[in-house]
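Example: Branched-chain amino acid ABC transporter, permease protein.
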Amino acid sequence: MKKEKSFWSGADRDVMKMTVITVLIFVIMVSMNEKFLRASNLTSMCFQLPELGLYSLAMMMAMLSGGIDLSVVSTGNLAAISAALILHPAAENEVTGGVLFGCVILAVLASLAVGALFGFINGFVIANLNVPPMLATMASQTFIKGISIIVTQGKSVSGTPEQFVYFGSATLLGIPYTMWLLIVVFAVTAVLLYRTRFGFEVKMVGANPKTSHFTGMNIKRIYIKAYLYSGIVSAICGLAILMRTDTAKADYASTYVMQAILCSVLGATNPDGGTAKISCMVLSLLSLQFLSSGFNMMHLSSYFKEFTWGLLLIAVLSINFFTAYIRQKRGLHKA
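Written out as structure tokens, the predicted fold is:
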């Protein structure tokens, strides 16, 4: 007689685990601070979520292919700087109408081009020169940041048109426009992963590149596509940050790299590649945002938060390792 699959087994296990963690963190934050549930705090979290969410999606795709992208934040910053340099003169000259619309379109296209360019470079170097992803993206992170510093002379670029900044502070149906942007990118990513050939191939390559090669897959092209996606989503994040803050600079939000890795791993993305779950990513993103907002309300220092992200990452990786080890042992005993 065939044994029924447990609700806690397989894919359900990860979703339920993240659901429990998310609810637990939420309850703890609410119990520790009565202001946590105020509408102003919830709205503030909705404005902050897109930044970490977009960078985490960019990181997730690189990790899904069996790599990592440490250049996501640097790419996003340079993309934002490119857009700000185009939009700043338009704001100074008080350009309106069709000319302003044209400037905004040009700024968006320039940002996406920056993301696509460096995403392609990362993928090309990793795929064709066999450079380990960590080293390749660490080098590109430093290189991109250097370009940003040279272009801006180490200063921030601000003063974009009010019409552009409006989308970073306004809401639609009570939800910030940038949050809608995150929802759209999540939906597109879900379609890519679960409904397209690319999604199947990138998971196969991440799980076992040698086997994928023998099945006829163009592994080099898949790597390039994965990092191209990472670069474009990083650029979108840079634009979202520019809309919200009206400022672009070379060293903005460097801690997001660690948080994006943590969010991806916590969200059931295998650091060795092959598996990722959008539902778990959403829950892990909410968990980290609840923690971050709670820490801010308790006026904890940024150093403590960095310590917490690092500790969490070590804890999650350790738990995942021992869980996989135990499952492997059980499988060997059953065999």
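Residues 43-254+269-276 form one domain.
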